[in-house]
Design goal:
Layout: H1 2-31, H2 34-74, H3 92-108, H4 113-125, H5 129-144
Helix pairs in contact: 1-2, 2-5, 3-4, 4-5
Transmembrane segments: 35-55
Protein name: Tetratricopeptide repeat protein
Organism: Streptomyces koyangensis
Length: 152
C-alpha cells in the first residue's frame, strides 16, 4: 500500500508540474515574438512527453498488478524465500540462487506468462530493474495473447 501511495503522490506532483510548465509555454507563445514562440513550443513539448511517459508507466503498473492478483488467486505467486541481512537488504547469493531456478523454469516453459512473471520478480530481487521490466512486459504480452518477439 505504501508503494501505491508513493506512486500516486509522485504522479500528482508530476501532473502539477506539467500544468505549470504548460501554462508557461502558453504564455510564451501568447507573447508573440518569434523567440518566445519557439521557446513556448519547446516548453510545451516537455509536459507532453512527460504525460505520455506517466501514462505508459501507469498502464504498465496496472497490468502487472492485474497479473499479480490473478497469480495470487491461483496460488502461484513466488514465495519470498530470500535470505536478508539484519538491515532487511536481500542477500546477493540468495537472490542469485532463486534467479537461477526462475530462469530454468522460464526456459522450460517459455510461453507461460506465470514463469515470466516470477522471473521478473527474481530480476527485481537481484536488482536488475531493466531486465525485470522486460520480463514483466513479456509476461503481460503473453497473458494478453499478443505476439512476443524473440529475445536476442
Amino acid at each position: 500500500m505504501r508503494a501505491k501511495i508513493t506512486y500516486l503522490v509522485t504522479a500528482l506532483v508530476l501532473v502539477v508540474y506539467f500544468v505549470l510548465a504548460g501554462s508557461r509555454g502558453v504564455l510564451l507563445i501568447r507573447h508573440g515574438t518569434p523567440l518566445t514562440v519557439v521557446f513556448g513550443v519547446a516548453v510545451l513539448v516537455l509536459p507532453v512527453i512527460g504525460v505520455w511517459f506517466l501514462w505508459k508507466n501507469t498502464q504498465f503498473v496496472q497490468r502487472a498488478n492485474r497479473l499479480a492478483a490473478e497469480l495470487e488467486a491461483e496460488g502461484g505467486l513466488p514465495v519470498d524465500e530470500l535470505v536478508r541481512t539484519p538491515s532487511g537488504r536481500v542477500d546477493r547469493a540468495s537472490a542469485d540462487a532463486v534467479f537461477a531456478r526462475r530462469r530454468a523454469e522460464t526456459e522450460d516453459h517459455p510461453d507461460d506468462w506465470r514463469c515470466w512473471f516470477r522471473l521478473a520478480v527474481a530480476y527485481h530481487d537481484a536488482r536488475d530493474t531493466p531486465r525485470a521490466r522486460k520480463a514483466m512486459q513479456r509476461a503481460i504480452a503473453l497473458h494478453a495473447g499478443r505476439p512476443v518477439p524473440e529475445q536476442g
